[in-house]
Records
---
Amino acid sequence: MTAGFRSALFYQDPKAALAWLEKAFGFELSMLLEDAQGNLVHSQMAFGNGYVMIGQEWSADHKSPRSVGGKNTQTVSIEIESDIDAHFERAKAAGAVIDAAPETQFYGDRTYRCRDPEGHIWTVSQTVKTVSREEAEAASGLKITGWL
């Protein structure tokens, strides 16, 4: 395993979330742990070289946005290689609530934002144009330090 970041999301109905994430985003279930009653204890869904952990609510600090008035403290970002508009249509057809339709950004990515059935916010992006730091600064009016 290589060093990196992983995210964990909590759901009232994590098994429904697994099915939705597969249908909407094309994620693949890579690990599922269940107790003797068939309750989800831990799971992981893979996409590309990364994965997200999906679990049930388990403490006052580990809640679905649905349980806390739709509030989020993070968004999960997905980087795809091609056809973001088709990906957007797939997510919309699966019932994603669209916060922002696909739009090309000043830094060269085309992005859209949506919410899953329990309210987690997802940002999906595809690099469609290579942009220099200077071009991004000129287009945005921002001072940018560091640039990949």
Note: The chain has a mean pLDDT of 94.
---
Amino acid sequence: MRRLVLLRHAKSEWPEGIADRDRPLAARGRREAPLAGKWLHEHLGSVDLVVCSPARRARETCAAVNEQLGAEVRVDGRLYPGFPDDLVAVARELPDAARTVLFIAHNPGLEELVGELAGAVCVLKTSSIAVLSGDGGWPDVGPGWATLDAATPRA
């Protein structure tokens, strides 16, 4: 069994004149991101790999979360903006040795991915987490591959 864990980045600021990709975390996001890391550590144990969007708010979320996890981190441009087909492509390329993988990315792609993989509706506000599990290898990820095991409101 594999676990694909989806974390929507923590709350970000909307500063004038800053490109969407460069938006930093807001004060609330800086408070919530470590709580998400704590939840992940307490409920999942180890995470083999974190795949993160290159957007600043996602990378800042990743840094705070990974203080609890200590996992290998990869930044993948396909997670921004994070269309479901791109997220599936990234999942299908994950290393076989990775059993639990965390994606830190954006909506609406993450919510749509839950719908595609698990056939479930899941609202992912900032700092929300969805835990999906599926049988088979990463190359098998696709419609109906997973069940939604857990979903959190903001951490």
Note: Strands lie at 2-8, 49-52, 72-75, 100-105, 129-134, 146-151.
